[in-house]
Amino acid sequence: MLVNARRLAPLEKDKIPLVQFFYGGTVKRGARQVHRLSIHSRIVDELEGDARAYDTGFVFDDNGTDIDMDIR
User: Fold this and answer.
1) Rounded distance, CA 67 to CA 37, Å?
2) Where are the domains of the chain?
3) Who wins on pLDDT, 13 or 45?
4) Can you give the pLDDT at residue 57?
5) Of 9, 49, 52, 66, which has the highest C-beta tally within 10 A?
């Protein structure tokens, strides 16, 4: 999802992406309980050489099948 949103470079074999994960616990959304996760990622603009940093929030259910992304 981060690659599609251009907040992370496409993954390459034998390279570990530079991201930080922050687990925010569980919250109620309507009648259901979901987990909060924030991911800090960086991508380098190859034309300008500048690094851009992003903070993206996610909420997901216990099964990990229902995921919502919050672009800030």
Assistant:
1) 10
2) 19-71
3) 13
4) 95
5) 9
